[in-house]
Write a structure and sequence with these properties.
single chain, about 300 residues, alpha/beta, six-stranded parallel sheet, two-stranded antiparallel sheet, about 45% helix, globular
């Protein structure tokens, strides 16, 4: 899809905070956007009621609302913002789809498997850098920071930037996401703990998160892998007090509700990360599993 010519046809699977933000921005930029929410879900009912994405300010972007992907539709791009542990049921439809490209936009340690399952020539990966909330009525609170979100294809860097969402190219996005997994699990876990206390995590709780973070990286190192990119390689070897301070600060920052937005994602990613380990990494796997949040009602997935 040329992002400087005619509007493209885009489908977005998963219309939570991130999917809604991208749908709004792309529709506002003139693209033909279809959003796909789970059948019989509250979100699907809200979208059908509003016939689009509505901001908390009242501004509205018209989109087509569906409950399943039309596999025969010639979408230029299908963006998937479902959580990593939820994507497997979608893989057969994505593989059969006539879409030109499937862009997976979530943290996952399994980029290679997903690429193979859908078709390596059609899959790209990316991340979102938006601050978004959905209220009880399904209205979207949206702030787009200046941070450039990494994307694995220059086409989508151009597309998102033209739609007002800063982006940059990351040549090895699948690998980038794999080593983002331990950091995401630790940050979400400690942020969720901080939300439970309302005052932030204790130092001891942040230290547990730091140990889990180091354990997650050690699972990859035991398999002979080197964390990527250089910033995560340095992080993986950082002293425990420094990692503890970082997580403790996140749990007490004004961004903790954004970081700790999904207990479900935290649990799912912790399980996927633990599954990467084996008998030689049993201690590390146990440390990762201690980060799984117990409560599920702190934030919407």
């Amino acid at each position: 899809m040329s992002t400087t010519q005619a509007p493209g046809r885009v489908a977005i699977i998963g219309v939570g905070r991130i999917g809604s933000a991208f749908a709004f921005q792309l529709a506002q930029a003139g693209h033909d956007v279809t959003v796909i929410a789970r059948p019989d879900s509250r979100r699907l009912a809200q979208l059908r009621r509003d016939r689009g994405i509505v901001l908390a300010s009242g501004e509205r972007a018209e989109v087509t609302v569906a409950e399943r992907l039309d596999e025969d539709a010639p979408y230029d791009l299908v963006i998937v913002t479902a959580l990593a542990h939820q994507v497997d049921p979608l893989l057969p439809a994505l593989k059969r789809s006539q879409a030109g490209c499937v862009h997976l936009m979530f943290v996952t340690p399994e980029a290679d498997r997903l690429r193979s399952a859908i078709g390596a020539d059609r899959v790209t990966f990316g991340m979102a850098a938006v601050l978004a909330t959905l209220d009880d009525e399904g209205k979207l609170g949206l702030t787009i920071p200046k941070t450039k979100a990494p994307q694995g294809d220059q086409r989508w860097v151009d597309l998102f930037q033209e739609a007002g969402m800063p982006a940059k190219l990351e040549q090895d996005m699948g690998r980038w996401l794999r080593y983002q997994t331990p950091l995401t699990v630790a940050m979400e876990s400690v942020a969720l703990t901080g939300m439970q206390h309302r005052r932030g995590a204790t130092w001891a709780e942040a230290k547990t998160g730091a140990r889990g973070l180091r354990a997650g990286f050690s699972i990859f190192r035991e398999a002979g892998e080197t964390p990527y990119p250089a910033a995560k390689k340095r992080l993986s070897g950082a002293p425990l007090p420094l990692l503890t301070f970082m997580l403790w600060g996140v749990s007490r920052s004004r961004f903790r509700e954004t970081v700790g937005n999904s207990a479900e994602e935290c649990r799912g990613l912790a399980d996927l990360l633990a599954a990467e380990g084996g008998p030689a990494t049993r201690t590390a796997v146990n440390a990762v599993q201690t980060l799984r949040p117990v409560q599920t009602d702190l934030a919407a997935a």
